[in-house]
Amino acid sequence: MRVDIKKDYFDSEALGITCLKVDVDPALKGLSLPTLLEEMVKNKYWDFIFLSTDHSPEFLEGIQREEFRFISTKNTYQKTISHSESQITHTFKILLKEEIRAKYTMGNISILASDLVVNSRYWKDIRIGRINAINLYEKWFENSIFRDYADEVIGIDLDGRLIGLITLKNKKDSGIIDLIVVSKDKRNCGVGSVLVKEAQKYFLNQGLTKIVVETESENINANNFYIKLGFFMESHRLIFHKQRPS
Ligand SMILES: CC(C)(COP(=O)(O)OP(=O)(O)OC[C@H]1O[C@@H](n2cnc3c(N)ncnc32)[C@H](O)[C@@H]1OP(=O)(O)O)[C@@H](O)C(=O)NCCC(=O)NCCS
């Protein structure tokens, strides 16, 4: 039974504030969460706390008492993949991480970051600030493409313009889709589906047969997109934010 509390170094640096990340383990049932939360908010320095939990009333009681604000519901989807799945025929030009690094600057990539951030919990919480939220997504893309945060990145180029990106991580028993975005004016033309299929090929080559992705419930397009591609919802968690009272 545990509450896992840690400083989120990436969010803290990108947002310019001290952020704590708290995952309330479902196994906690029965423990006095209100007491734990009280200790936490008293004893550690923080500007923001980002907390995720399931729907247990005993957790929610403590969360409400500490005046956390509900921001979003995060859905986790998963899919078992195999070489026998049908491929999509397309004429898009596919680029991998090294080619994307060589061809594009952060200027090109920032546009995609702005297209993605509007669907995020950072954007929904106005107290974080829109500029800070954009900054966080730009850094996330930058670390994924130009540093080692992602194990692979796949992009789609149309006439010299990057119109879609997916960033991937290899975990021990599953492949993770970390970021996925298609340019606003190129959506619903199959670009996203091609990116996911290319990601599946990559993971299969890495020996991984399970693929996992998270998205927010409010992002109806993305939920329908994953369902259409054969993903199943594995779990969902409530996300709360708390800002240090001034
Ligand atoms: C999610 C996203 C990557 C999908 O890319 P895309 O290129 O538009 O996807 P595709 O064209 O391959 O597939 C679209 C499918 O998604 C679903 N979909 C898309 N928009 C939808 C809508 N408004 N209502 C219902 N379903 C929708 C449909 O099932 C559609 O399939 P169809 O073509 O058979 O109708 C793209 O919408 C995007 O970049 N969104 C913003 C960023 C984002 O939300 N990323 C995911 C965060 S986890």
Question: How would you describe what is shown here?
Answer:
The chain is 37% helix and 31% strand. It has 246 residues and is α+β, with helices and mostly antiparallel strands. It has 2 domains: 65 residues, no CATH class; 158 residues, Aminopeptidase (3-Layer(aba) Sandwich), CATH 3.40.630. A 10-stranded mixed β-sheet has the order 1-2-3-10-4-9-8-7-6-5, with helices on both faces. Helix 1 packs across helix 7, helix 2 runs parallel beside helix 3 and helix 5 packs across helix 7. The longest helix is centred in the middle third of the chain and has 17 residues. It is globular. It starts with a strand and ends with a strand. The site of coenzyme A (COA) has 20 residues, from strand 8, helix 8 and helix 9.
Class from secondary-structure proportions: alpha+beta
What is the highest CATH level, the class of the largest domain? Alpha Beta
* DSSP strand tally: 10
Summed up, the helix count is 9
- What is the N-to-C order of secondary-structure elements (H for helix, E for strand)? EHEHEHEEHHHHEEEHEHE
| Quaternary status | single chain
> Considering the protein shown, what is the CATH homologous superfamily of the largest domain?
Gcn5-related N-acetyltransferase (GNAT)
Ranges with pLDDT <50 over ≥5 residues? Answer: none
CATH architecture of the largest domain: 3-Layer(aba) Sandwich
Query: What percent of residues are in strands?
Result: 25-35%
Percent helix, as a range, is: 25-40%
Integer count of domains: 2
CATH topology of the largest domain: Aminopeptidase
Please summarize the sheet with the most strands: 10 strands, mixed
Whole-angstrom Rg: 19 Å
Mean pLDDT: 91
| Chemical compounds bound to the protein | coenzyme A
Strand arrangement in the largest pleated sheet = 1-2-3-10-4-9-8-7-6-5
> So what's the overall shape?
globular
Distance between the termini: 32 Å
